[in-house]
Design goal:
The chain is mainly alpha-helical. The protein has helices at residues 10-22, 27-33, 38-51, 76-88, 104-115, 121-131, and strands at residues 65-68, 73-75, 117-118, 166-168, 173-175. Among the domains are: 10-51, no CATH class; 65-131, no CATH class. β4 and β5 (173-175) form a beta hairpin. It starts with 9 loop residues before the first helix and ends in a 7-residue tail after the last strand.
Length: 182
């Protein structure tokens, strides 16, 4: 068996191996043929596709509509109408009244289960933002620990702090019990 030397550039070998791989030729054979290590091939391929030098032909994201669970397309305008109808509900006796308190991720699951609409939570966020249905975010503040000011700490292990939950007494243990199944 003769060993053939193929005179191609590094990028040319990469492009040819990608082309022949799409025809169904074994990847390992192509890498040996073009004298490219597998780690170099995959790293370079990732770099090429991320920079957009080579456009991969494939299914592009279709803007303007999503899919139902039945496979039918549904336009974004119809999804916005569903969202508006959810947020316009003022009857607190209906279970759909409480859907508007949900976040985007849970709302996407509710739309899938109840309405049969498959929508990403990021798309729901964008739609709610366009419609002005977002609630204001509450900033959660952390409380600073209250420490006595009459202690001067000048060196390590000079001042210690402890948290006492239970105090054993003659009558039994006194203190707060955590709620649980114990």
């Amino acid at each position: 068996m003769e060993s053939r030397e193929v005179k191609t550039t590094y990028v040319g070998g990469l492009l040819l191996s990608l082309k022949y791989k799409s025809y169904g030729v074994c990847q390992r054979y192509l890498l040996e043929y073009f004298v490219i290590s597998s780690s170099t091939f995959y790293t370079t391929r990732r770099t090429f596709f991320s920079n957009g030098w080579i456009k991969k032909k494939g299914k592009k994201r279709c803007k303007g509509y999503s899919m139902k669970t039945t496979g039918e397309p549904i336009s974004d305008e119809e999804i916005k109408k569903v969202l508006v109808s959810i947020y316009e509900n003022e009857n607190c006796n209906e279970p759909e009244y409480y859907i508007k308190a949900l976040g985007d991720k849970k709302l996407s699951k509710v739309l899938r289960k109840r309405y049969g609409i498959i929508v990403n939570h990021k798309k729901i966020y964008r739609m709610r933002k366009e419609l002005g249905l977002l609630r204001k975010y509450k900033k959660h503040t952390k409380h600073a620990r209250k420490r006595p000011k009459n202690h001067e700490v000048s060196e390590p292990n000079k001042y210690w702090e402890a948290d006492i939950k239970f105090i054993p007494t003659e009558e039994g243990i006194k203190g707060k019990k955590k709620s649980g199944n114990r």
